[in-house]
Write a structure and sequence with these properties.
With 609 residues, this protein is an all-alpha fold. It has helices at residues 2-22, 45-57, 61-73, 86-98, 102-115, 120-132, 136-149, 154-166, 170-183, 189-201, 205-218, 224-236, 240-253, 257-269, 273-286, 291-303, 307-318, 325-337, 341-353, 355-363, 365-368, 376-382, 385-401, 405-418, 423-436, 440-453, 458-471, 475-488, 493-505, 509-522, 527-539, 543-554, 560-575.
Length: 609
């Protein structure tokens, strides 16, 4: 329906544009100029407005900006000077803000206010601009003026309240929000929503819940933010089941992607992967071409051992130009696990034919097709320079697999030579330096550089978080990075292990135990997770349980790591000699301890939302 309305509107604009361009021109003094005198092109204000609208809708902002600036700067081109050009200035201001040319936008808006001090549309536009660039005093002055000019417009009251909130004057902010709830009872959901947030910040949970319920009553379907924050607060209060039912009730009336995402998170935290998949499938109906969603569903299906269904998702993603290297590898791995050799070779050949796009995959033929007689370095030299970075990156991974770390360092450096912004090579070179060359500081700098290029690069976030936690440094930053990594991959057992280990280092032992137990169910063969569970039990003064998990971890490892675990077991026995006079009691592995949420949760509402 939205598409039909939009195309219809564009058709009307186009018709108006043609009409304006073919309409007879007004006679002006330029018609009586001599033949050799240049004529200035004449445009009406309506013509410029419609043409700029068309350019904006087609995404050509630069042309729209140029047209508007030309028209507004050259007064001699205006045929209807009596017309109000404020609409053009507002449009130009919006384009400048969109292109982040805030200084130019401020000049346009300052002139607009000088010319039209009582124009309510102009005042509102400029107030929003000032609010956006955090000039709260200027924004407040305009909103207070608008409240006088348009007393029946609740949006002005909302923004005035938000300005006071940003200025940390919550008393006045609440005054405006309460005014909305009393003056506009039928559209008071925003007032209740922000009051709920303020009460929550004050630690008044019951009052906050009351306002969220009032918000839901006024806008039961159209405003999902109330339900999201209501559920989030219930979750923090330990009422997870009630929170989930609240969201479930909303989805029966209206399918909302953000609500479903919250339900997915709830299901994962309850370790109910079946329910998480149900909600993921509902999200897929709303965004059938969302690549990241397809990836998540594919990974979840693999965990459920629904391999053919997972393959269908990864095959869909791998066909897209924006697909990641890992998407192709997932398809190859699944083909190999299903012993579909024909499909595997066909898919790999498709990838290797287009070396400019997928140069690293023909290198990995050694792994998938056992071709060991290929000169991979010469192959890298044969691809275009623009893609050699990926090729050398793959060679670096290859060298790591073969444990030739010096070669890996050389190849990752070559990858960066051809593309200094290859965040994957920066990350891997950082790992090589930290793990195999004892250059922690240099390696961390490379990883932080990778995160500047791609801020939500989950592998780098998780690695740095764990590296800091292991060294017992930067724990606040480690906590933040680990949470950000889990936002990208909530079902990743390694990431959950890192988060649990960070909580352990912060001495939040009960919360750490819940997260680590969850990680062990997702990655049951990971000895490190069991070791961290044992460390946490030591922190909780449960030596018997600690030794049981240390022993479980020792069954999965060998060498120096085994010696380290033996030393830890000995330390526990020395610390609690009275507990081990007889044979130690072993707890049943995998018993369900109460899983509590981390004490520090990210804010549900961003300031100024």
């Amino acid at each position: 329906m939205r598409f039909i309305l939009k195309t219809g509107f564009l058709t009307l604009l186009l018709a108006a544009f043609v009409a304006c361009s073919t309409a007879p021109k007004k006679s002006t003094g330029s018609e009586f100029l001599g033949k050799n005198q240049k004529k200035t092109p004449q445009m009406s204000l309506d013509f410029v407005y419609l043409k700029a609208q068309l350019l904006t809708y087609s995404g050509d902002l630069d042309e729209a900006k140029k047209l508007l600036q030309t028209f507004l700067n050259q007064e001699n081109t205006i045929t209807d000077k009596a017309s109000d050009s404020s609409a053009l200035k507002i449009m130009l201001g919006r384009i400048l803000v969109q292109q982040e040319e805030h200084f130019e936008a401020s000049k346009i808006y300052a002139g607009l206010l000088d010319e039209h001090p009582e124009n309510k549309t102009a005042l509102s536009e400029v107030a929003k601009f000032y609010y956006g660039i955090k000039n709260f005093d200027a924004a407040l002055e305009l909103y207070q003026k608008l409240i006088v000019l348009e007393p029946e417009n609740e949006n002005h009251l909302i923004y005035a309240g938000l300005v006071f909130y940003e200025k940390n004057n919550t008393t006045k902010a609440k005054k405006y929000f309460y005014t909305i709830t009393k003056k506009f009872p039928k559209s008071s959901h925003l007032g209740h929503y922000y009051l709920g947030h303020l009460k929550r910040e004050e630690g008044k949970a019951e009052a906050s819940l009351w306002h969220y319920k009032k918000c839901e009553a006024v806008a039961p379907i159209s405003f999902s933010a109330c339900h999201l924050d209501h559920a989030d607060l219930l979750q923090i209060l330990g009422q997870e089941e009630k929170a989930y039912k609240l969201l479930e009730g909303y989805t029966k009336k209206n399918s909302d992607y953000s609500i479903l995402e919250k339900m997915v998170q709830f299901s994962i935290e309850k370790q109910n992967l079946d329910q998480a998949l149900v909600n993921l499938f509902e999200q897929e109906k709303l965004k059938p071409k969302d690549l990241e969603l397809k990836r998540r569903i594919g990974h979840a299906l693999l965990m459920q051992e629904s391999v053919p269904e997972a393959l269908s998702r990864f095959e869909f993603v791998s066909q897209d130009k924006l697909s990641k290297n890992e998407d192709h590898f997932n398809v190859l791995r699944i083909y190999k696990s299903l012993k579909k050799d024909i499909e595997l070779k066909s898919f790999l050949n498709t990838l290797t034919k287009n070396r400019d796009l997928n140069s690293n995959f023909f290198i990995d033929q050694r792994y998938y097709l056992d071709k060991t007689d290929i000169n991979f370095t010469s192959m890298c030299k044969s691809v275009k320079k623009s893609n050699r970075s990926h090729c050398y990156h793959a060679l670096g991974l290859f060298s790591l697999r073969d444990q030739t770390y010096k070669k890996a360092k050389i190849f990752f450096n070559k990858s960066l030579k051809y593309n200094s912004k290859n965040f994957e090579s920066l990350y891997m070179l950082g790992r090589v330096k930290i793990e195999f060359m004892s250059q922690s500081e240099s390696g961390e700098k490379l990883m932080l550089k990778a995160l500047k290029i791609k801020p939500e690069y989950s592998q780098a976030l998780n690695y740095l978080s764990y590296n800091w936690a292991k060294r017992d440094v930067n724990l606040e930053k480690s906590f933040e990075f680990s949470q950000r990594a889990l936002m990208q991959e909530p079902l990743n057992g390694h990431f959950l292990d890192t988060f649990g280990y960070v909580l352990y280092r912060m001495k939040e032992y009960e919360n750490a135990l819940g997260v680590l137990k969850k990680a062990s169910k997702i990655s049951p063969e990971n000895a490190e997770i069991y070791e961290h569970i044992a460390d946490t039990y030591v922190g909780l003064s449960f030596p018997n349980k600690a030794i049981a998990f240390y022993e479980l971890a020792s069954e999965l490892i060998s060498g120096k790591n085994l010696e380290r675990l033996g030393s830890k077991i000995a330390d526990v026995k020395k610390t609690y000699p009275e507990r081990f006079k007889e044979s130690p009691y072993k707890t049943t592995i995998g018993t369900s301890d109460d899983i509590k949420r981390p004490t520090r949760m990210p804010a549900a509402i961003k300031k100024g939302k």
